[in-house]
Amino acid sequence: MKHFITSVAFLLLVSSIAHAKIVTEAIAYEHDGVTLQGYLAYDDSTDKRMPGVLVIHEWWGHNDYAQKRARMLAEEGYVAFALDMYGKGLLAKTSQEAQGLATPFYQDRAKMRARAQAGLDVLAGHARVDNTKLAAIGYCMGGAVALELARSGADIDATVSFHGGLSTPDPDDAKSIRGSVLVCNGAADAYVPREERDAFIQEMEDAGVDYQFTEYGGAVHSFTNPESDARGMDNVKYDKKADARSWDAMLRLFEERFAND
Q1: What residues does each domain of the chain span?
Q2: What does pTM read for this prediction?
């Protein structure tokens, strides 16, 4: 009898796992006259509304890597939306092209924040999302965008920057941050100089933000992306250990912020 009950329990578990499926969909939306296309991912094994996580891409544009991260978040039980900062199908093939696409947003932080907010609005408005539990994460340029979104006073519980830029034109805007902040930075990242790191920490301290600033020894820029090595760029390299550790740090923050009362 005991063996029978154990077998039934196992079959129920297998059935549950088999039913779970990561569903993805492309979502077209618009901001400031520009047609954008994001990528939504969620686990359809439950009809319960789940916390939403906005994923902001590197300066290369909305590519497979951003979509991969969205699927990984869906596997963790979140509804993830990888937004599009540039426009439907617009991707950079070279660093020069990427710089050309990214620079207008760095020069106009209001535009950067508004474009990110447009993506957040899509996520928050989705039927699968518990819009009282939202987060934003970003990689490289996306990390800078996520931080600017937080500084704008957006209603997000957690902001995570992976090897992203930290500077901002107006540090006082940090007083508008409403949630927790996690920065995952490569200790050997020459693209984020020490003075920029120190200024960011001072910004967070002055604003009384609940923040964590973690540096990973030996890691350089773009340490989370396995495709970094193929870029052939100085100070750009994948670091498997730093990638895993920073992802785990993000998940711990989400567990803390999204815990049920």
Answers
A1: 22-257
A2: 0.92
